[in-house]
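Continuing the batch. This is chain 6 of the set; chains 1 through 5 are on the previous pages. Same settings as before, nothing changed between runs. Recording input and output for traceability.
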Amino acid sequence: MIKLCADYLRIILFCGGLLMGIQIPAVVDQYAKRIDAHLIEALDVFRGFQQTADRYFEGNIQSLISHYENSDDPVFKNDATNILFISNRVIHLRSEQIALKQSALMRTAHVLFFPDSKVFQQTLEQYSYMILINPQALVWGLISGFLIASFFDCLFYVFGYLLRLKKNRKKELSA
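Output for chain 6:
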């Protein structure tokens, strides 16, 4: 009876890991779409400043920022910080977009270990669970299911081994 329960537990753990693993490509996809949306918005805001830089500073946005910083008008000085922020944001989002155009494994590793934390948090907060039926999702699901089931198998084995050791020591001490 215990073996049957252990087998069912193993199947449940595998299925849980499978369902969790299938979510990985979906999270990566949602994150990439969110990065694209943020980049489009940042470019829309930045476009006017870039046009001004093109017109008066030969396209050099840094010269435009310096001009704003050196102005006697406090509004322009304040805007220099805003332009710099938007410029840096566009650069950062473009680098994120480049990282997300790599192979599936590199893209997934990037999202799991080196994401833009603000965008990743937004992705998780707005994420709607789904089951993708494509080869990539199935591979992630199978690998996750196998790893989780194997991990708990090993954990239960070690736990059982330690219990048997403790039981055998009690027998030796009482004999």
